[in-house]
Amino acid sequence: MQDYDEIIKNLFARHQSVQNAGFNPDSYKPGLDRIRGLDRKMGNPSEHLRFVHVAGTNGKGSVCSMLAASLSGNGYRVGLFTSPHLLDFRERIKIVEDGGCRMIPRESVLEFLEKYDSPDLSFFEITTGLALWYFDRCQVDIAVLEVGLGGLLDSTNIVVPEISVVTSIGLDHCALLGDTRALIAGQKAGIFKSGVPAVVGERDDETAPVFEAAAAAVHCPLFFADNMDLDNCLQEYLPENRDNNRLNAENDFQAGTPADILARMDLKGEWQGKNLRTVLCALDLLGEEPDFEAITHAAAITGLHGRWETVGVSPLTIADIGHNPAALKENFARLRAEMDGGAYDKLLIVYGIMADKDLDGIIPLMPPGAEYFFAAPDTPRALPATEILSRFAALRQEAAVACDSVDDAVKKARAVATPKSLIYVGGSAFVVADCLKFLQSSKND
Description:
The protein has 445 residues and is α/β, with parallel strands linked by helices.
């Protein structure tokens, strides 16, 4: 069999991916005609399976992970399709069951490409087709699909799901989706289907009318998850309030308060409270009880990386793929809170960004008093570290250096850290991926 790494290298060479090449006519091909044609060639797997379809600006990966973990805890074999990948292309396509997950086998990737690869397909259309084909082959009970971009014209939008979910709306990919949150909401609402319940994570004055109009147009029930009283919902699962709760009976699991749940979750951050509420609302509409034990270990069960992930200790090193102002505002606020709490003596930030992102909107959000190590990850889309430093220095006075690579930045941050320092690595999935590769290779040396 061909070497797997060579297969993937050739795949990326034949089909430019947005992840590597950015948005251009070869990498980004909006519309559903090509993926529908591929679906027909494969025997219409999109019509054979049950789906949960998840769109949104931030929180998609976490919500998909929690949903897949909880559904697998209820005894289902779950297909999980997410993006981007960090270390291995196969991270995008997984089977979640029996308390763990497995990536699509290399042999299956090769078999699919030999049968269905076509030059007119985009990279994401190929990966979407691969996921549908593999989930059908594995006879999954339900598949959780994460939208790649937007929703209306995304290749995942050929499915008719059991539930449509929109996690959040923020300003990202504005050149393609629109420069207001209302316009972006319209693209995300494109996943709403006739008669299929839709869950939106947050209600606000700018986007709610868009979602309400979209739901009315296709006659689908619409629910805003932030209307859910999370305290009362969790109280329902306390042992004294449920006589036949499988989890409490078998695992002695106490649902407790939202703070109790969030403290135990391996997906960290106050923002996970919003994601949890969205997950519980979706599960309720599916008629499924939440498996809180599985939800609290969702990242471990599904193999999700880069969401406030601890990648090192002494000094504590956190990696997060949040890259737009909305996500980084939350991350930087948490870093400031951690420092204000006095547990750490120094905050060191390894940061990189793609050239098409809103650096000028992000710089004011960066924590004061930190030391910054700017780096360009290994992709042509990255903004050079020297340019990040120049634009940062024009607005801020904190200590900062431009580094040769993410590896170099992590090494330099570690060199000046104490055991009580806190290192944060982020700004892009590529930065986190390079960091994980470096840390992995360091362990093997």
